[in-house]
Amino acid sequence: MFWILQWGLQIIEKFCINVIKCGPVPKHVAFIMDGNRRFAVKNKMQLSEGHFRGFDKLVETLQWCLELGITEVTVYAFSIENFKRSEEEVGTLMRLATEQLQKLLSNEVIMAEGVRIRIIGNLLLLSEELQKLCAQVVLKTKDNDKAFVNVAFAYTSRDEIANAARIIVEGVKSGEIKNEDVDEDLIGNCLYTKNGADPDVIVRTSGEVRFSDFLLWQISNSQICFIQVLWPEFCIWDLLVCVFRYQRCCNELKKRGNKRKNKNERIQTFLDRLEQQRLKQL
Ligand code: FPP
Ligand code: MG
């Protein structure tokens, strides 16, 4: 069983999930899974163990998201900046990705659950073996449509936007599209994330309050949740807090919408009365 676990949740967890599900649940949540190395240091482990625990936590989190009805999840698994880390650490992360993608290919749970995996990023920066594995996983799951897991690998937002700009310039140069065709929709459709929805919520663990070049175009309207715990410590209660904050924000927006509606109705009634009065005076 890989990527999607099938162990049961505790009764109290199930109960709280069902309560939270009575309100609006975000369709798409993005995670910056930060704090693996600090977790390793804190627990006197090898740094690589921190990343392994981080992967286990990702698997657990995907299951919670599915239970909650969050149908799309995007995770920041490896930033282009991460290539600057030591050779040993980059090697560990690449091996971890290779192993897990291989396991994914030979496992049917993901197909049975109808999960589509998309890998977003500058895949040309990866080894040929990893590029091939990414392509195999993406192709194998491409017709699944019950849930979506987007893995940002060799990704930064600036690279993604620069790449989109290059694609668009090529299109204009070749005459396939015109200058005036370039708008927000076209740019969005040339990003690595073109097939997905924008995240409703972005979560970053470990207390860091930064976006680190992650989905900068896509999160312009997302709710932001900075969580203090290190990624391997992230638990279902942290996720429920994020969803609860999202629900509070939705309610607030709804109230503001109602206030605006009330105001418009009030003004319209006032204007109608003035018009009636004017007609009477004629
Ligand atoms: C950030 O913690 C984490 C990463 C750079 C790697 C995240 C990767 C995983 C959780 C594994 C996922 C793998 C796959 C194949 C999807 P950090 O290293 O920045 O830790 P620190 O903030 O404590 O230094
Ligand atoms: Mg970090």
Q: Could you name the key traits of this structure?
A:
282 residues, alpha/beta, Undecaprenyl pyrophosphate synthetase, six-stranded parallel sheet, 9 helices, 13% strand, binds farnesyl diphosphate, binds magnesium ion
What do you see in this structure?
The chain has one domain: Decaprenyl diphosphate synthase-like (Undecaprenyl pyrophosphate synthetase, 3-Layer(aba) Sandwich), CATH 3.40.1180.10. The protein has nine helices and six strands; from the N terminus they run αβααβααβαβααββα. The chain has helices spanning 11-20, 36-42, 47-68, 87-105, 109-112, 128-140, 157-173, 184-189, 236-281, and strands at residues 28-32, 72-79, 115-120, 147-155, 201-204, 223-226. The radius of gyration is 23 Å and the shape is globular. The mean pLDDT is 94. Belongs to the UPP synthase family. InterPro entries: UPP_synth-like, UPP_synth-like_CS, UPP_synth-like_sf. It catalyses: n isopentenyl diphosphate + (2E,6E)-farnesyl diphosphate = a di-trans,poly-cis-polyprenyl diphosphate + n diphosphate.
Largest sheet: 6 strands, parallel
Bound molecules: farnesyl diphosphate, magnesium ion
First and last CA, distance: 80 Å
Provide mean pLDDT, rounded. Answer: 94
State the name of the first-level CATH class.
Alpha Beta
Strand-residue proportion: 5-15%
Which superfamily, in CATH terms, is the homologous superfamily? Decaprenyl diphosphate synthase-like
What is the C-alpha radius of gyration, as a whole number of Å? 23 Å
The tally of structural domains comes to 1
> Count of helices?
9
Protein name: Alkyl transferase
EC number: 2.5.1.-
Keywords: Magnesium, Transferase
Organism: Asbolus verrucosus
